[in-house]
Amino acid sequence: MSETGFRERVFSGVQPSGNLTLGNYLGAIRRFVEMQESGKETIYCVVDLHAITVWQDPEKLDRATRELTAGFLAAGLDPDRSILFNQSQVPAHAELAWIFNCVARMGWLNRMTQFKDKAGKNRENASVGLFVYPNLMAADILAYHATHVPVGEDQKQHLELTRDIAAKFNHDFADRIAALGLGKGDEGGFFPLPEPVIEGAATRVMSLRDGTKKMSKSDPSDMSRINLVDSDETIARKIRKAKTDPEPLPSEPAGLEGRPEAKNLVNILAALEGKSPAAVLAEHGGKPFSAFKPVLAEAIIAEIGPIRDRMAEILDGPAEIDRILAEGAERAEAIAGPIVDQVHDIVGFVRSRR
Ligand code: TRP
Asked: Measuring from each residue's beta carbon to the nearest atom of ligand 1, which residues come in under 6 Å?
């Protein structure tokens, strides 16, 4: 229990987008699995409701959900210690999102840069769901009274919106929250103001063809990324062909300025070895890429290889994956259901059935 009166609880969501990459692994999956050791309760959600804000082929969506689940399990997520489930199996998310649609203001959502980026010029044709996506994300987090949210830098604005929604709800309903005795901590709010836990730069993996762009499953060039399903040979070849510059590696991080590709490769090795980029450069500074790349390829293969093989085994038994998701959903429901019931009481909905 923290001084805010809320129990420390980690929540994060990942979209089931298919074709997991080294970027998803280092930036999210591995970090989330490590947080199991933090002593806080950990809840991870495969956000299929978020995925359909843009068109998803139904047959690929269910497969992507099982693949992401298998990725978490292969990376060491323990379904007894963490709660792992897919969003659509817990109605509390969609239910609370509706209420938040009525708390959040148009002006707040109009400022969301991710919507502008994703909708592009074709704003009129974007789904309404894409516009209110951040309200659903706030519902994901607040339905659990989560206090810590590990996310990438690009989600920071959505976390700020989540805090704004929590604060407005606490404020608008303050009298009712107090009358029902549902306030917590010194502030007496019903919702906590969750903290983002932002990944370090070293875990942000960039494209192997362009060090200024994020590694992405949707990049047309497969050579730009390491997929979690790539064979050892494919990984070695992609690293061998990764874009670099003609200079040898510098011996200090300052020497990586203006060399995004070199910086990316150093960051990847640093993340894999659990070291700082400075420590990697202290060891490898002065080497040409022809000497550094084999070291990097080997480190990636050593980490990803066993996970890839384990993932394939897990995916061989989809019934077991579905069982784990069902059990996770039940445990998630047991936390979020009563919280959303209390929200109904606070808002003034008659609740005579449960
Ligand atoms: N929007 C997040 C992303 O694209 C995914 C997400 C959905 C999420 N709900 C969440 C992350 C709740 C953290 C907490 O990365």
From this structure: 11-13, 15, 47, 50, 137, 140-141, 149, 151, 155, 158
